[in-house]
Amino acid sequence: MAEYARRQAAGVALLAVVAAASLLAGPKHLFETAQAVADRPALFAGLLVGAYLVRPVFVWPTTLVAVLAGYGFGPAVGFPVALAGTTASACLPFLVARYVGAGTGLVGRLGDSGERFFAAAGDLRGMVASRLVPAPSDPVSVAAGLSGVSVPAFVVGTAVGEIPWTVAAVLAGSSLERLSVEGLTAVSWELLVAGLAVAVTLLAGPAHRVLADR
């Protein structure tokens, strides 16, 4: 019981840190630094690794850092780098949520809802579909962690589901002459609609079975 309370307290403290960091740290300085070291591949690679590590803390969108990968490395190298970084950074909130546990209250209800979703859809299918939906990455990762999704299903499902968003962001970054936060739109509405349509298709079968069972 004491161990469980300690984990819950750690989760609350971490949430407070994330909330404060997201308010205080915007991506403008990151973009300025990336632009300054873009002609030095080793430094740029180190900056990119650091950006992916702190991204969940600052609640930066995954596409924002993928734009950096495209800007610095171009589409051919930038895409695998960005997809690996996106998947790895998504694991951080997922593993924290697994450690903290669902608990009670709002977090408990979120965990219960996630468990029902993944029980109906399956871990892998559910992860792919949830990544294809145009929703913020980190809440999806947290919900998966609270729901007990297996690590392999989370990693593979995240990597597959993030492919279209990563491609769009890397291509957007590779076409930029100058990095700027203002007006940066890596994802078009057509891609958003397509991702949502594929997600609905993936979930149509499980949803039908759930309704039939009722």
Please describe the topology of this protein.
Elements: H1 2-24, H2 28-36, H3 41-58, H4 62-100, H5 105-121, H6 123-132, H7 137-146, H8 151-161, H9 163-174, H10 189-213
Helix pairs in contact: 1-4, 3-4, 4-7, 4-8, 4-9, 5-6, 5-7, 6-8, 6-10
Tally of DSSP helical segments:
10
The main β sheet shows up as: none
Q: Stretches where pLDDT falls below 50 for ≥5 residues?
A: 8-24
Radius of gyration: 18 Å
Helix content: over 70%
Total domains: 1
Cα end-to-end separation: 37 Å
Residues in β-strands, percent:
under 5%
Average of pLDDT: 77
Give the strand tally.
0
Shape, please?
Answer: globular
Could you say which structural class the secondary elements and strand pairing correspond to? mainly alpha
What are the secondary-structure elements, in order, as H or E?
Answer: HHHHHHHHHH
